[in-house]
Structure formats: C-alpha cells, structure tokens
C-alpha cells in the first residue's frame, strides 16, 4: 500500500472523505439514491467525480528484473519479431467481416481460429524499430490449471501480402530469484507506451510488463505441462518466450464500491499534450451490473484517464499515489474497448467497442449523443474487443473474440482488422 509515507496516507484519507460518485460526497445511507439516478443509453458521456480513487505503485521495477536474471539474457521485441512462427492469412473481399470504412486485416491460423482453450481479448499497437507491431492478449478459458494470459506479437508492417506472421508469448510474474508463475488474469485490456505494456487487472488496477525483458525458455515435451523452474530449465507450458511483469499499480484494499471500479479494458490516448492510459468498466444488465447503473442496469460503466509521465512512460505519482485526471460515466452497456478520436485534440471524445447488439462501435463525447455502427446492420464486426487508434488519425484497429463455434472470419470468426478513422468519425 502506501508503506510508511505519511503524506501519501494523508492524501488518500482526505480524498476518500471527499466521496466518489457522479455528484457531491455521499452522506451515510444515500448510496441507494445515487445508484438509482436515471441513465439513458446513448446519452453523452457524463462527468464523474473520481476524487476518491487512487492507485499505488507496487515499485517492484528493479527486483522483478533482478529475479529474472538467472532465466537467461534479456531479449527485446526485435528478437521476437525475428522469430515469428505462425502465419495468419490476410483477409480478402470474401473472407472479411462487414465494417464501415474497412481497409484491411487478417485472421489467425486454423488452430488459433478453432481453439476453445484461448480467447482473444485486447489489442494495442506500436512501432519497434521500423516494424509496425500489433499485440493481442488471449485469456485461458478451461477450468482447472490456469495458464494465465498469452500475447500474440504480430508484424503488421505489410498488409498487402498473403499472410501476417506472429508468435505467442506467455506472460509471467516473477516470484523470487529465478522463479516465476503465470499471470492469472482475464487480459481484457492492453496499452503500449515506450518499453512498457500495461494490462488491465480486473479487480485491482494495472499490471506493467517490460518489453525489453523477455526471456527464452525450454520447449521440450516435459515443459508443455509446467511453468517456472523445473530441474535445471525454465518452462512456460511449451511457449518459447516469456514476458515478465515488472510492477503494478493497485487500489488500496480500503477502497470499496462504489469508489472501487473494475479495470475491464484499456486504451492509449496521446491527445491534449498529456499521454494517458485509459481504463473502463464492462457492465451489462445481468451478471455484471455496476454501481451507477441507475434505472437501466448495464449503463453505469465508468471511463478513467490516467496521466503518464512522458519521461519515464510510467504513471504520474503525486504524494505516493496516482489519481485519474478525468472520469466519465459512459452510458453504454457491454463495453469491451476504448480508443481516442484522434481527429480531435480535446480529450472528451472516444470510440467504444461493445458486444451490445452482438457487436457495435460507438462514437461518444461529452457534447453529443452517440453515433452507432452496428453488426446487425453490416456496419461492424461481431463480438469486438480491444481497439487502438493510430496517432496520425488514419487507422482504427480492433480485434474480435469470435462467435462461439464460428471459424469463418466473414461471419463471426476471430479477426484483427482496421478501418479509416474518418469513416467512423
């Protein structure tokens, strides 16, 4: 938590006394009234008071790297990009899903299209040297042994060929000198800044991975069912490379609902002169209702903007804590991803990816009702998840998790594709 930093504790206590909600500080017994405020689907983003919310840096940056030293030399993205071992066919006019402003995309190889063990979730993108790279997270679905989260690292520099090359990498968490284990999270959100990859930790905040600290591990048959150090080698369920967690930003345990949100998805925002990690809540009308759902359950998901220190690519820490610089209630259900509308310098307009209506893209802002692109009207793909908007204002990328049992990319199978930002603005 805050350790022995009295200033940080004072800041935290003062903030919590200030309340957390869409209006003034809550009085005892007033929570029900606040939570039943009417919300309207498709309404503009509603400003949200997030003054009670804090994240605390677990500050394991050095120790995590030290713990991985024995595993082998640190490898950066260029090493992985030089060893891609899978090919995903580029989509064609007959194999692509419907999407307004469609420009290009690819599907996974046959095994990854059909597997029920792993499900795609989040997407982020960036540049490594001269290579354009997309990174997609997959969560492990079977019950029992949890293999955690894997990433697909894909070279998307040339979309004009017949296939996109990619490789899976397993996320791990160092637990001691030369020891690591899986990262048992949903992997619902990614945001890439510099060498750091941020991932949503649903219940607690954000986990951070260092793309310069990948390690090669053993791929023998004995390693296919094991993780961590096994005898004289290190295993990662058969994967050749691991990416270690280096730190985390977590909510203090004293934060409770409604102040304590879920971290369901992430996004990358570089507008307004201050880069930021975006985080948001998935809410629906059934098993995932949120604190501010009002009279229409599913609409109370909140969107937060966490400021980044441009010199370090870490979140800005003030008096021992990280605070969101902006927050809104989204007034949209089933949100799975977010990306900034890059044609606007204001940080008040976003695209939201939603599984509402089996698939939708919503353009939302603080000043106007939503603009919707629906899969049922052949305007968007089915089951969309994470998104990334290129800083040039050109392309909007997204990944789909796929309709259960469907492997045809044109009718709901898993795909990664991009559209013209202007077409959905």
From TrEMBL:
This is Lipoprotein. It comes from Melittangium boletus DSM 14713.
